[in-house]
Amino acid sequence: MRAYKFLDDVGRAPFTGVPWTVGDWVETAGPSPCRHGVHGCRPADLGWWLAASLWEVELDGDVVETRRKVVGSRGRLVRQIDGYAVAVRELAEVGTWRARDLAVTSLREAGDDELAALFAAAFEMPALAALAGRADETVFAGRAAALAADAAHFALSGDAAQSPFVSACAAGHAAAGPAGDQAAYDDGYAAERAFQSSWLASRLGLR
C-alpha cells in the first residue's frame, strides 16, 4: 500500500535514525506499531508526525493499520513530496494566527483588554513573537498569549515541526479552560492536529 513518511533533513527516520534511499527496500521482522516495522501515515494523520521532509512510501508484506499510523514489514521510498518545505512553513503561519486568535479571546475574557489589543494588532510574525515578554504565564490567559508568541517564534525559526506543535498545544489549552480539563485539552489538541493534517493534505494534493 502507499502511505507517507517523514524523514529528517538528511534522509533518516526521526525516531530510529535509519537512513533511507529512494527505491531501496528496508526489511524488518514484522510490523509492530511503535516497536518495529516500517512506519508511515495516511493523509489524515500528517499533522501528528511533521518533520523536515515528506515522502511517499510503499509498504509491503504484512501491513497493520492503527490509529494515526500504518506499519509494514517492509517498505521503500517512492518519491519526495514536492512543495512540502514551503507548505509546512505556510502551515506554521496559519497555525500561529489561529493560536493568536485564541489568545486574544482568552485575554478579553480575562479583562486584559490592553494586552488583547496588542495581540490583535500584531499582523506580522516578528511583532507577535516580540510580545512574548508581555504575557503573565502564571494565569490562564497569559499562558494562551505566551503560546501564541512562541508559535510565532518557531514559525520564524524555520522549524518544520515545532510551530504547529505549539499551535496544537494552544488549541488544547483553550479547550481545557482555566480549570485545566485534561480530556478537553486532549480533544482540543487532537482537533488542531486534524486541522493541520487536512490543511496540509489539501495544500499538497495528497489523498
How is this structure best described in words?
This protein is an alpha+beta fold and 207 residues long. It has 2 domains: 2-81, no CATH class; 86-204. The protein is 46% helix and 18% strand. It has 6 helices and 5 strands, in the order E-E-E-E-E-H-H-H-H-H-H. Strands 1, 2, 3, 4 and 5 form a 5-stranded antiparallel beta sheet that branches. Helix 5 runs antiparallel to helix 6. The longest helix is centred in the middle third of the chain and has 26 residues, at 84-109. The chain is elongated, with a radius of gyration of 19 Å. The two termini are 13 Å apart. The mean pLDDT is 95.
Q: In angstroms, what is the radius of gyration? A: 19 Å
Number of strands: 5
Overall tally of domains? 2
- The number of distinct helices, counting runs of at least 4 residues, comes to 6
User: Helicity, in percent?
Assistant: 40-55%
Q: What would the average pLDDT be, to the nearest integer?
A: 95
What sequence of helices (H) and strands (E) makes up the elements?
EEEEEHHHHHH
Strand content: 15-25%
Largest sheet: 5 strands, antiparallel
Multimeric state of these chains?
single chain
Distance between the termini: 13 Å
- Poorly predicted parts: none
Based on Cα principal axes, name the global outline: elongated
